[in-house]
Amino acid sequence: MTTVLLMGPPGAGKGTHAGHLAGHLGVPVISTGDLFRRNIAEQTELGRTAQAYLDAGEYVPDEVTNDMVRDRLAAPDARPGFVLDGYPRTLHQAKVLDEILGAQGRSLDAALVLRVEVDALVARLLRRAEIEHRSDDTEDVIRRRFEVYHDQTAPLVDFYAERGIHYEVDASPDVDTVRASVWQVAVELKPAA
Ligand code: AMP
Question: How far away, in angstroms, is 193 Cα from ligand 1 center?
Fold first, then answer.
């Protein structure tokens, strides 16, 4: 398994586990949230476009996001594979991702969903807010991000389930346990040599 995406509600640990999994697989993490935040920090045109959306907990428009990912997936380091963190988040993005990968002669191996109870997530996110000072980790924005996830991203689970590449991991235990579960799925998926 070398082309994988990690899905899950805000605070489920996508970033952490995408990093672990990518390290194991020896492929880069492609995190749209990180790419947006870097562009915002560097005050690029893309960053100026994205900032208001991130601050409000809304999704950046699909065209902007898709173009950014298309560029990133064309980079040589993504050739052997990648772990996508936070993309696709809408059905339209999922379809565009299929097109991008199809044009490169490949497809997605797995969509891994991290499952956690909402109450536990709010507590995690508020803790992260204290540590990282992210502008979108205030309580109102957190609530909005859950709504947006529920409305726009949760339906993607069915999209990938129908294709038979959807896997679930219980992400409520401690980080090491979840990490082992994610790796277990990855190992099971590895094509036999
Ligand atoms: P994340 O770090 O993945 O939680 O993303 C932080 C914020 O970046 C989101 O709340 C959105 O505003 C924006 N963002 C990240 N990925 C996407 C995406 N695939 N589509 C639209 N907006 C995104």
Answer: 36
Per-residue model confidence (pLDDT) at position 86: 95
Please tell me the predicted confidence (pLDDT) of residue 191. Answer: 47
Q: What is the CATH number of the domain that holds 25?
A: 3.40.50.300
**Phi, psi of 68, rounded to the nearest 5 degrees:** -65, -45
Task: Determine whether 22 is exposed, middle or buried from the number of CB atoms within 10 Å of its CB (0-12, 13-18, 19+).
Answer: buried
Residue 6 near residue 83 (C-beta atoms within 8 A): yes
Check if 14 is active-site: yes
Angle at 113 between CA 174 and CA 69, to 5 degrees: 115
- How many structural domains does the chain have? 1
pLDDT of 190 reads: 56
Pocket lining: 57 vs ligand 1, CB cutoff 6 Å: yes
pLDDT at 68: 97
User: What local confidence, expressed as pLDDT, does residue 192 receive?
Assistant: 40
Cα dihedral 65/26/1/193 (nearest 10): 160
Ranges of residues in the chain with a pLDDT under 50 are: 191-193
The domain in which residue 101 lies consists of 2-189
